Amino acid sequence: MEPSVNQNVRPKYGILAILMVGAFISFLNNTLLNIALPSIMDDLDVSTSVVQWLTTGYMLINGILIPTTAFLIQKYSVRRLFLVAMGLFLCGTFIAGIAHAFPVLLTARMVQASGSAIMMPLLMNVMLISFPIAKRGTAMGIFGLILMFAPAIGPTLSGWIVEHYDWRMLFHFITPIAAVVFLLGFFLLKDKKEKVTIKLDILSLILSSIGFGGLLYGFSSAGSKGWDSLQVYGTITIGVLALIWFILRQSKLEEPMLNFNVFKYPMFSLASVISVVVNIAMFSGFLLLPIYAQTIRGISPMDTGLMLLPGALLNAFMSPITGRLFDRYGGRVLAIVGLSIMTITTYCFSNLTFETGYFTLMVLHGMRMLGLSMVMMPVSTNGLNQLPAEYYPHGTAMNNTLNQVSGAIGTALLITIMSIRESVYANRLTEAVAGGPTAELQQQIALEAMLGGINDAFFISTFIIAIAVILAFFIKRAKQGDIKLM
Fold first, then answer.
1. End-to-end CA distance of the chain, in Å?
2. What are 87-142's pLDDT values in tens digits?
3. What distances in angstroms separate CA 288 from CA 293, 346, 359, 453, one per listed residue?
4. How far apart, in whole angstroms, are the C-alpha atoms of residue 160 and residue 7?
5. How far apart are CA 96 and CA 58, in angstroms?
6. At a CB cut-off of 8 Å and minimum separation 6, what does 295 contact?
7. CA distances from 149 to 21, 28, 272, 310, 426 (A)
8. Are 119 and 23 in contact (CB under 8 A)?
9. In angstroms, how far is CA 481 from the centroid of its own chain?
10. Which residues, 6+ apart, have CB-to-CB distance to 26 below 8 Å?
11. Considering only CA atoms, which of 35, 26, 299 is closest in space to residue 158?
12. For residue range 200-253, what is the model confidence (pLDDT) as tens digits?
């Protein structure tokens, strides 16, 4: 188990820097790929439903492996885990860069994901044990600045690379950076860990893999296959049953793989619920706004990336500021203000038209990301602050797992809402046309129906975020180990 944070020990900034660079390039590589998917479809001759597995497969591997990171962090040293994680990521990136068949590329992405899944919980745990609670907000803010810069530059950089080079260049330029980071970790990380006797419960690993994997696969498939598909509701049902069995088993083990006792701490539980709600709703912007911009408005991928860039940069550069504000004022005020901003801007996005200006979209997205910067890191840090030090690995693993699952749920929910409402609007508009609509009119009806579906999905997202606003009023500044009810 990890010791409590020593207030007088200077944080090991060298270790933190290496870990952050490793986490940054794994984040960057994931955001780079989204805009390149159409190019990959054309080059490897695969359909949209097939190419989406590059994202779905990545999420599946993360969902399966992240719950095991609590055990791995307690069992092995930072050096060993980092080298394994970075080595897997490096191998996956190299293979992806030379892939000339889709199965090879998909396998490479899954190898990448197996390394990335370890990286984030490992970094979060080192951050928690390196800084006392009074300075943790500022530290997490700087950490957020570095990591949020990856999704900020990812879409724009990807658009530029895909326009000027082959999509494989996305992996080629990451490979040497990953190799340098691996070598830095090999020579500079020197920490050792006393031998720990805990063992991994194999049945727990199997149940966790089936449970989280089933949920992620089911919800990720719902958008393309529909909720009435046996493949969707069957895998979700199996996932839920396996997850219930997994949770019950953890409560009986002396050394659980993932300790659900973290939910005895009310601020951690509240932070988890708020994060899940926000994750579900925020996917409306990350998914639907690019669809609106490129499909309905005809904005190029490069210009779409540039439109999203200011908001992503604002989110990144606000992170250290919100970290300091958190240390001074706590999480409640930040969360209430941030969630209120997100609610208002999301409602504005539910009124998009064919004439909504490019600058208007940029400003609204920027304000929405400003609100997000005041919510996710402060709320999550406040929840983790209440946990005893020995629960940090379990808390970070739980947070990352919930983020993966809620992201998949948000994707499926909002795509389904958009698709259903789009179909309703299309039928209604077609019925209103006297006689059979011409090909040109059919195209116009399809665009109007899609616009209506996107607006309705944003409208539902507004109410989802409003739930988080109400929950934010119950946030209190956390005290470590305090499990008294709110």
1. 28
2. 999 999 999 999 889 999 999 999 998 998 888 778 777 777 777 766 666 676 66
3. 9, 11, 17, 10
4. 46
5. 13
6. 447, 450
7. 11, 8, 24, 11, 39
8. yes
9. 28
10. 89, 112, 115, 116, 119, 120
11. 35
12. 788 988 998 898 888 878 877 776 677 788 888 899 999 999 999 988 998 888
Among the listed residues 483, 253, 275, 273, the one whose alpha carbon sits nearest the alpha carbon of residue 387: 483
Question: Dmax of the chain from CA atoms?
Answer: 80
Q: What single letter denotes the amino acid at residue 25?
A: I
Count of Cβ atoms closer than 10 Å to residue 190 Cβ: 11
Rounded to whole angstroms, the Cα distance separating 389 from 231 reads 41
Q: 0.85 exceeded by the pTM?
A: no
Please report where in the chains the tokens 């994680």 appear, as a residue.
Answer: 85
Task: Kindly state the helix (H) or strand (E) to which residue 159 belongs, with its residue range.
Answer: helix 133-164
* C-beta atoms surrounding 94 within 10 Å: 20
| Burial readout 356-367 (b: 16 or more C-beta within 10 A, e: otherwise) | beeeebbebbbb
Structure tokens at 66: 């992240």
CA distance 439 to 168: 38
Contact between residue 218 and residue 239 where contact means Cβ atoms under 8 Å apart: yes
Q: Which residue has the tokens 């904005």?
A: 299
User: Sign (positive/negative) of CA torsion 339, 342, 346, 348?
Assistant: positive
Number of helical H runs and strand E runs in the chain: 19, 0
CA-wise closest residue to 34 among 215, 157, 147, 173: 157
**Does residue 270 contact residue 278 with C-beta atoms inside 8 Å?**
no
Answer for the pair 143, 23: CB distance below 8 angstroms, yes or no. no
| Contact in structure between 453 and 422 (CB atoms under 8 Å) | yes
